[in-house]
Write a structure and sequence with these properties.
The protein is mostly helical and 226 residues long. It has helices at 3-7, 14-25, 27-30, 36-52, 54-73, 75-106, 112-130, 132-158, 167-186, 188-219. Among the domains are: 66-130 and 190-226; 132-186.
């Protein structure tokens, strides 16, 4: 053994010599971003836990389907329920915000923004409770403004795209978005109903997907964890 071999342990220690190049060969694995074996093991454990609690996934699917059917066949009732639910949430959040502000003031901490946020939430809750139509219109106008702005930006970006890459498709999507936004501003009532129906369709598809997933998990619930 030479003097150089004693100073450099990786030349004499097979374990050290084998570990160091592996650590440097994949920085992502060293930082924990990519761990094939560990990731597979955790995935197996998660799959087993989901399979044992398949009924939770099924319950979410049932509620999704019920909400979707209600939104599709009773859009007005669903829309009113969503407004009341929003009002209740704003009420609770506002009260909690004021309580946090009072506690912060008692401890000589900044409390102004917390109390202001709580008051704004309470005002929004009162508007939703006593003037639900105003709340619906505000939501529809916000959606309309978003559709117009995003559509205009999409059309503007389309002219920077090579025509062979589908420029006309991007322009078409932007124009449709702008037209939809204008429709929401001109006819906010029917627009709100249409938005509710779309939300119901999404919830219905999402719920059915969860039901199929729960059925697969139910069939595999007896498999041991990996």
């Amino acid at each position: 053994m030479t003097h150089d071999d004693r100073d450099v342990p990786e030349r004499t220690d097979p374990a050290y010599r084998g570990a160091k190049p592996h650590a440097l060969s994949d920085p992502m694995e060293a930082w924990g971003f990519f761990e094939p074996a560990g990731f597979a093991q955790r995935s197996d454990v998660l799959t087993h836990l989901l399979a044992r609690n398949w009924w939770v996934v099924a319950l979410r699917g049932v509620f999704g389907v019920l909400f979707g059917l209600a939104a599709l066949f009773l859009p007005i009732v669903t829309l009113a329920s969503l407004v009341l639910l929003f009002a209740a949430y704003m009420l609770v959040d506002g009260v909690l915000g004021i309580v946090e502000g009072v506690r912060a003031a008692a401890n000589n901490q900044r409390w102004g923004t917390l109390v202001l946020e709580g008051v704004v939430d309470l005002i929004a809750s009162a508007i939703a409770f006593f003037w639900p139509l105003v709340t619906v219109l505000a939501f529809v106008f916000l959606a309309g403004a978003w559709a117009i702005i995003s559509g205009a930006l999409l059309v503007s970006a389309a002219f920077r795209l090579n025509i062979t890459h589908g420029r006309w498709l991007m322009i078409l999507g932007g124009v449709v978005s702008v037209v939809w936004g204008v429709v929401l501003f001109v006819w906010p009532g029917p627009g709100a109903v249409v938005l509710t129906i779309w939300l119901g369709a999404y919830a219905l598809v999402f719920g059915v997907t969860l039901l199929f997933l729960s059925a697969r998990l139910y069939r595999h619930r007896q498999l041991p964890a990996g």
